[in-house]
Amino acid sequence: MKKILLVAFLIALNSCAEKKTKTEDFKNTELNAKDNVDAKKEESPSKELNKAIVLGSYTGKIGSNLEVAFNLPNSNGVIDGFYYYKKIGIDIKVVGTVVADSLLAYELNYKNDTLAILKGKISKAAIKGKWISTQRKKELPFTLEKTDTAITPLPENIEGEYYNDICDVTLTFAKTKGEYYYTYKSNERTLTGKLSFSRGDDLYINLTEIEYAEDYFDVALFEEDPEKENEYAKLKEIGKRRLGVECYYSPGELTIQNYGNAMNYYVKLKDCSEKYIHFKKQ
After folding, report:
1. For 85-104, what is each residue's pLDDT tens digit?
2. Which pairing describes strands 78-85 and 179-185: parallel, antiparallel, or unpaired?
């Protein structure tokens, strides 16, 4: 009987020891986990959006020669804006965030696919950083300087048909896959091509692939100038005249100055004899 009691006592003692060991192991595991969490918190501090910093309109360059204009509104640390290349003038969507003095933004195409990433440091008057192409993995530096001139988006109602009743000429603008296109139609011809935009105080729409009907070298010189005559003769032989007919845009209307004067001779469109061709939106 004594032997049985002794065996039972030893079994109970061993069970208590195991429980104690497991409890200590569990406590150690908890402490280690807590230490790891604390360590991670120290290594990766929470990144709060900068809701206070004021951004806005910027102009500058990507790389050494690509002139750009940006509109970067900061709404509680979130960017939902656009930019455009001054040579082309078509809005490109930009979204991103501001954390402390750092900008992280994404350039999106018409399908909302990311084309490029912009990483920059924000100062009071500028943003400097890198533009990184996601397709070609190409990096270019960018510098943007704050401007008081508001960078505004293209008008939403540019697309449509514009008509001139005097010369019976129609211009139609359409947008497809983020690009703008024109169709020029007269009684003599139909021309198509891409549009670009010159944006400043006024908006000009450029019919990029229409060649001038006559250029400055097509005019007869008033005075004898053998050097110019030779230059003009060569240009006439080549036959390469200026490309791109500009239209001045105002809401619902387009105006083309079709020809110049003796000091600045040109004829843009042979289909109309009007000096100023006015189109009204239909």
Report:
1. 999 999 999 999 999 999 99
2. unpaired
